[in-house]
Amino acid sequence: MTSTVSAQPAPDTRSAAPERPGGLPPRPHGVRLDEVARSFDSPQGRHDVLRGLDVELGSGEILAVVGPSGCGKSTLLRLVAGLDRPSGGEIRIGATAIRGTDERTAVAFQEPRLLPWRTLEQNVALGLPRGTGKREGRERVRHLLQLVGLEHAAAQRPREVSGGMAQRTSLARALARSPEVLLLDEPFGALDALTRLRMQDLLLEIHAAEPTTVVVVTHDVEEALYLADRVLLLRTLREAGPDAGSLVRTVDVPGSRPRDRADRALAALRVELLAGLGVQAHQPTPTAATPTASTPTAATPTASTPTAATITENLS
Ligand SMILES: Nc1ncnc2c1ncn2[C@@H]1O[C@H](COP(=O)(O)OP(=O)(O)OP(=O)(O)O)[C@@H](O)[C@H]1O
Ligand SMILES: [Mg+2]
């Protein structure tokens, strides 16, 4: 079993991605969701999980998806990965509607799902596109292991490495095909806090080196705001009215990456997103003793801060 989705070649392949001058890698395609819905039938009746999802994801954008457990985040990721079909609406990568798993897409799940009898190097190689030449594949795998800081552990087996190393191997495997769209389902959920922060930075370094359009599902609101250009907050339809859509809010994260984890605009957005998840949190108020107190821009948010301006209410 592998966490990287292998797929049939699609008509609109990476070679069709928009070219860029100066030897830069081609821009990855964006993703578009039009009125996407997914429901499941059971003996108890129809269970609507996703409804009315309209999202346009720009080339190279990082989108984070947050929402309560069971609201359909993994379902959404499976739809974009082509592992499942929407009950309504359509999903496109570039100009092509998704009809099944797709060579341009790779998925990494919460558990690394490495093959225990293979070395880390061999596990990463599993993510290479079919037909990759031996030498080319070896070079690509070596490059990826270097990128995730695992060259020294290439010959080790999963049971011989730490959870963070296994997770980095899983990420390298997902990147092996140079996906245009990288889908991450709580990729750092099982890691300790420090390794998690390092993995977030690693993901951003990789994204800067090899631009990819990313959808990352996370339960961690801070992680979402640190990584993403935009955050989608989803609701559980079971707890909403019959006409409510899945999308509660879209948050445009201000500023550019790399972000300052202590940025007060992010802290304000964090409070708002947590409130959207039903968790009351307080933004720390700067005091004379704290270094931020002397910073004029570090004021408590008001109606004129990016917080209010950047949140699109979509409550129905
Ligand atoms: N194949 C399926 N058949 C029936 N119901 C399903 C199927 N897949 C998902 N569901 C239901 O859809 C709902 C959303 O599941 P999903 O796994 O997408 O939630 P989630 O937001 O990822 O939750 P979590 O944060 O706990 O991972 C759940 O109620 C789940 O039982
Ligand atoms: Mg899930």
Note down, in words, how this protein is organized.
The protein is of the alpha/beta class and 316 residues long. It has one domain: Rossmann fold (3-Layer(aba) Sandwich), CATH 3.40.50.300. It has eight helices and eleven strands. It has helices at 73-81, 120-125, 134-147, 163-175, 193-209, 221-227, 264-276, 306-309, and strands spanning 31-42, 45-57, 62-66, 88-93, 96-97, 105-108, 181-185, 213-217, 230-234, 247-252, 311-313. The strands form two sheets. A seven-stranded mixed β-sheet has the order 6-7-8-3-9-10-11, sandwiched between helices. Strands 2-1-4-5 form a four-stranded antiparallel β-sheet, with helices on one face. α5 (193-209) links the parallel β7 and β8. It is globular, with a radius of gyration of 20 Å. The chain starts with 30 loop residues before the first strand and ends with a strand. Bound molecules: adenosine-5'-triphosphate and magnesium ion. Adenosine-5'-triphosphate (ATP) binds at residues 40, 49, 67, 69-75. One of its GO terms (molecular function) is hydrolase activity. Its EC number is 3.6.3.-. It comes from Brachybacterium fresconis.
